[in-house]
Amino acid sequence: MTDSRSILKSLKDTGHRITQSRKLVVEALCGSKVPLAVLDILAQLKRRRSAVNKTTVYRELEFLNKEKIIREIDLLEGKKRYEVIHSAAHHHHAVCVKCQMIQCVEMENDLFELEQRLSDRHRFKVTSHSLEFFGLCKDCQ
Ligand SMILES: [Zn+2]
Ligand SMILES: [Zn+2]
Ligand SMILES: [Zn+2]
Question: 101-109 long-range CB contacts below 8 Å, 24 or more apart?
Answer without folding.
Answer: 101/137, 101/139, 101/140, 102/34, 102/35, 102/75, 103/34, 103/137, 104/33, 104/34, 105/133
